[in-house]
Amino acid sequence: MAVEFRSFAGFLLLCWIGAASALIGSETLAPPVPKAISDLRDSIVKGLGFQGAEDFKVSGFDVRDALVGHSVAYEFDIEVDKKVVPFKLLEDVNRWDFVDLPIFRPPPPADSGDEEKALAEMKSRREGVVAPVLPPFQIAGPMELWIQDADDMRLALPHDVDAGTLRKVLLSDGAAVTVKGARSVSLRHPLELPLPLNRTNLHDGSHVASGLLNIAEALRSSARSSDQPLVSLRIIGPSSLTSSKLKLKRLSPGLVELSSSSRSVPASPEDLNLSEGRNLWPLTSLNGSASNLRGFEELLSSVLGKKGFENGKFRLLKADVSAQTYMKMSFAVEKKLADGDADWSRFPSWKTKPEKATAHFEVLARVEGGRKVVPERIQEVQPAHIEDSVIDSVQTGNISMTQLPLMFPPPSFFTI
Question: This protein's superkingdom (predicted)?
């Protein structure tokens, strides 16, 4: 009797452990969905037309499978013949990692007595997000820079200079600075750019195949002959402006002018990284022969069409280059199959016909401000292919081994 009781008690203990494990496993497998991810899921479901459909089921959007990476986004608006054509380009993400972003965590409980504590915790989460920055780049004058969100910016010419909190920097002709730690660079005013793309307009009269280099050279010539700064850029969040030798002149609080201290005449193209006409002004750290710029030039040529070979102008209304945080997640859409939805003529007779069809997708989304996720691209992906395994009885027509013909292998001289 004691043996039976101990066996029964052990059975109850095993059941209790199994139930606790199942409960813990279910909580682990189904974590609370953060609001940013639920909003992303709702927008995708609505955009794909699955909202309100009873025969569709959307699954996935698990933050534990989300991959995070940083990239550089380019946005341009070009006006051609009173038509605005937007461009949006994205560099390939070099590295995807599993990162625990604050938006992946469920919001803290906001009890009636702990509302201030919950708000403080949410604020600390947002402030703990490290925003991506652009790689260092060089800008050459003549132009003006409007500095935003850079109260602690370092100014080195080449030694550190205390110029207070800068809001505007004028770069004279011949002056060039290297910008580090910027989050974005954008054009403040539209520009009129000359056409055709390809023409002989360099100082030595030679012909350059790149239309972007021709535009940059023509724009620089116009800026040097203009009394007012022709190009005006807004730079958000730079950590430093550095140069080898520049002279600083304070014009007003928050406004300085940087000019070349070694000469009174404008610097030569060689001094501004413009040797052999390969670099684009005013961003002289960009190589005009790079493959990504070649691709953009081909895209621009296709938009301009015949106008790109004629004398004229087109307008650059918007130019924005920014460092962005991107996230990609997978999800699946399941649909009930009705009569006539699938062709079963090539389906094996021994297989059970499925009642549902599943499509797998991957969404690429942009993380904005550490609080919002905006979908940018959704594409269908193919899941891992599973090979069918069939037992021998099915392959041979489900007959017994006694009905198979006897086969005698040829004798072997090494058989004992």
Answer: Eukaryota
Give the integer Cα–Cα distance in Å for 136 and 173. Answer: 21
Residue 179 C-alpha from the chain's centroid: 22
pLDDT for residue 288 is more than 90: no
The residues spanned by each domain of the chain are: 137-289
What are the C-alpha distances in Å from 360 to residues 59, 317, 342, 344, 375? 10, 39, 18, 22, 16
Q: Cα dist. 29→25, 62, 290 in Å?
A: 6, 9, 46
Cis before 196? omega within 30? yes
The predicted pLDDT at position 362 comes to: 93
Confidence of residue 202 (pLDDT cuts 50, 70, 90): very low
Calpha distance 321→313 (Å, rounded)? 23
Mean pLDDT value across residues 353-359: 85
- Residue 307 is encoded by which pair of tokens? 């106008």
Closest CA to 182 of 124, 134, 122: 134
Give 62's contacts (C-beta < 8 A, 6+ positions apart): 329
Peptide bond into 142 cis (omega under 30): yes
**Rounded Cα distance, 314 and 82, in Å:** 9
Give pTM, 2 decimals: 0.73
Residue with tokens 């390969």: 278
Q: Are 233 and 143 in contact (CB under 8 A)?
A: yes
